[in-house]
Amino acid sequence: MIEAARGSLLGIEHLGREEILRILKLARRMNPRTARPLLRGKRVLLLFYEPSTRTRSSFEMAAKSMGAITTLVLSSGSSIEKGESLVDTGYTLRAVGADVIVVRHPNAGAPALMARNLDIPVINAGDGMHEHPTQALLDAYTILRHRKDLKGLHVAIIGDIFHSRVARSAIHLLSQFGAQLTLCGPPEFLPEVAGTLAPGLHITRTLEDAVRGADVIMLLRVQKERLGGTKISLQDYIARYQMTLGRLKLAKKDAIVMHPGPIIRGLELTWEVADCPQSVIVEEVRNGVPVRMAILARALGKAR
Ligand code: CP
Fold first, then answer.
1. Per-residue pLDDT tens digits for 244-281
2. For ligand 1, atom 4, which residue shows the shortest CA distance?
3. Residue 7: how many CB atoms within 10 A of its CB?
4. Model-level pTM?
5. Is 260's C-beta closer than 6 angstroms to any atom of ligand 1?
6. Does residue 135 have its Cβ closer than 6 Å to ligand 1?
7. Distance 166 CA to ligand 1 centre (A)
8. What share of the chain is helix, strand, coil (3-state, %, to 5)?
9. Which of 73, 119, 212, 218 pairs with 83 at a CA distance of 20 to 30 A?
10. Are 269 and 39 in contact (CB under 8 A)?
11. Do domains 17-131+288-299 and 147-279 have the same CATH topology?
């Protein structure tokens, strides 16, 4: 077993401010339409054990715009279906020539396990309920296109926080930079918090309290089947936690509305909110490409 190869990105929790800033700075210099072929001859392996539209396509766009070759391996239709282990799949993909593996997996810690067994960088594209570091980086990048600084920013995070790797990575990142975070959702969707909360972290049960005065409203995906495990019905969720234009008015006038996607119109937010001028949901997707270009360049030693 070896340490994760240099350039791996397994989570935000242990990344550190300097490294986060370095990636964001590099991303600002990346343009997929005019990119230099920094990764010519490099092979980027996209290994997805779970469905994905945004993460998968933006990693592929990012890699190809810098001249890399990409190969997509999905769990269905591959030898994973025959019972091949994660580590053996990693050895196989390394043997066919992968220079970096981008992996999405339903189990927390799967990218770290792969990274500890391979001598090439591994990038976490979302692992179970653990982290989604590239989403947090593109979210920070998006916020910083609308605000000068993350410090002191009021961010309301609404929805199924407990099960969300997006929320976990966002909280690690934004709290490191001094943002004030308010978490809001049904009790079953909130993290269990023993004792006092970390500085800058607040919990509220009413959406109105969370949103009042907010600079950023970060909505999370709510899976209908998970609502089934709570005391709250779909109709109650919509009545109490759906983002509407009326509720958005409680936030700062220039507040932005974010959502990692996929969005469910009529559940987490109304159609009007999804398409309103304050919604940056499509911009987040677009920003995923330069941010993932920076992450791939860093992974392959081209982050200069
Ligand atoms: N935000 C996100 O991870 O979307 P996908 O599941 O479509 O990649």
1. 999 999 999 999 999 999 999 999 999 999 999 999 99
2. 54
3. 20
4. 0.96
5. yes
6. yes
7. 9
8. 40, 15, 45
9. 119
10. no
11. yes
